[in-house]
Specification:
Elements lengths: L1 H28 L22 H8 L9 E5 L2 H6 L2 H7 L4 E4 L7 H14 L2 H4 L2 E7 L7 H5 L10 H8 L3 E4 L2 E4 L6 H7 L1 H13 L1 H8 L7 H5 L5 H14 L8 H16 L3 E6 L4 H6 L3 H16 L4 E5 L20 H12 L3 H11 L13
Parallel strand pairs: 1-2, 1-3, 3-6, 6-7
Antiparallel strand pairs: 4-5
Helix pairs in contact: 5-14, 17-18
Amino acid sequence: MKLILRQLLWLTSALVALYGLVLAITLVLMPPGDAGPALDTTRASASLFLTEPKYVFMTRSRLNTPTDKVLVVGASNVGVGFRQAQVQALMPQVEVHNLSIGGSNATQVRQVIDLVREVQSPEARRHNTVVIGLWYGLFADDRARWHTPDRHAGDTDIDIERYRYGFYRRTAAGAEPVLPPERLNLGVTLIHPYLVLDRLARDTTRSLRRLMNDKPKAMTDEQRNAVVLAEEEQRKYLAFWNDYMGGATTLTEGPYRQIEQAVDTVLADGGKVVLVDMPIPPWHAAGSPLHADYLARTDQLVRKLTARPGVSLIRMTQAGADDDFSDEVHPKPRVAPLWAARLAAGLTQTPTLAAQTATALNSPNSNDPEGTTP
């Protein structure tokens, strides 16, 4: 028995030493790199983390700082419309972070906010100004959005990253951390070889995957600016969103409760919330069976939330004509600077950020802030 235990000990030690060697080699050959002065999920594909959910999950410790921060959350239209670098240039005295994740609904937005809070000190939380981009797609019901054959029923993209490397475990009460949140950076370092292997596998098979999936190359900004959608393309987009929303003709209350609870959590920490009513192309609004219901329900939610100290609203629903969008939801690159200016102008009306942003927005290069409301 002693011999068996001794052999097991030697085997375990050898495996640990081997993994340590692999870890050291991968850290040297492909260093994890610094997240930089700001987080921006649009850079996720070029990072070691590859995807937006993994990028947010793995890099969020960067936000545990006692400095004023603007945290932009929502779906892909938020990240495309409010480009981090453009908003940051208008607000040089605060940190601007883009934490938007494509395909997010209200549940996943709340998860992102909670994950950030999880690694922050009480002092850091008080410096959060959370910007939430609202549109009808954000209010997709969880059953339509996350109960799909490609995942455990109900798991969001964030949940998948929670469980992927064992940082969390699944329980009847929901996800519970196995790795203490304050040790997140250590955990990310320890799984570095797996991240490198995944990155190398993706890079070496990129061309093959594009060929097999018949996926076109990403369009350049110039190509997006030149897009003119035909009626047939518009119908395809409307059909996609009808399917995405589960064929619903009215929205449910669950996603609205998620947003309200997320707002209350930020306010309880001493932070601020800015709700942004995001525009979509007029043809999309007219063709969607849910847009009118979204407007009515969201008006009620906004009235309720903006009555609370620390919550403000920026209305951008009149910000876009059909020609301002490269598809059914994403603004063209030429429009993004105007959206950034409207966001920054609206943020100056929040007391915490007013002093820091006023100087930048009053510069000769600032854009007209028309369309913002306190």
